[in-house]
Design goal:
About 40% of the residues lie in helices and about 25% in strands. It contains eight helices and five strands; from the N terminus they run ααααααββααβββ. The protein starts with a helix and ends with a strand.
Length: about 180
Amino acid sequence: MRDWLIQLRKSKNYTQQQVADGAHIDRAYYAQIESATRNPSMAVASQIANFLNINPSIFFSEHLSEPFIVALTNSPVVVAHCDLGLRYTWIFNPHPDFNAELIIGKRDDQINSNEAITALMDLKRKVIESGDFIRRQITFPMTTGDKVYDVFGQPIYNQDKDIIGVATVSTELQT
């Protein structure tokens, strides 16, 4: 099951039929994609992703990025993409306090509320507004204690060179 896809669809109050129509595919095919009995082609993944406003690579992360996954799994590094509304479109290796499948389609302030979340969202907004990369240290309260992250944010561009979101790489620092 692609629980993250089901959760995202439900969080947007869409039926399978609405997503299928928005992606211009058959509802039965979409249901098979959700249940993970079929994998979408790159074109279909892009159509679904465009409708749901997510990054299409999320459908193929486990297949296309094996060296990346091996290198970063269990590391102190979190990589993420957000859209212009600061909603997560992709995330890899979040802190154990967070479930990656439940984060997709949400903003940080819909997941938690604290000064670190405000600082992270501010960093992302400034990246979008300025078009520049920004790097800051932010201390996040976690169940295992405060964690300091070196957060690097940079714009994500489309083929027309328009900013469409923010990519962040957050590295946990030893304190």
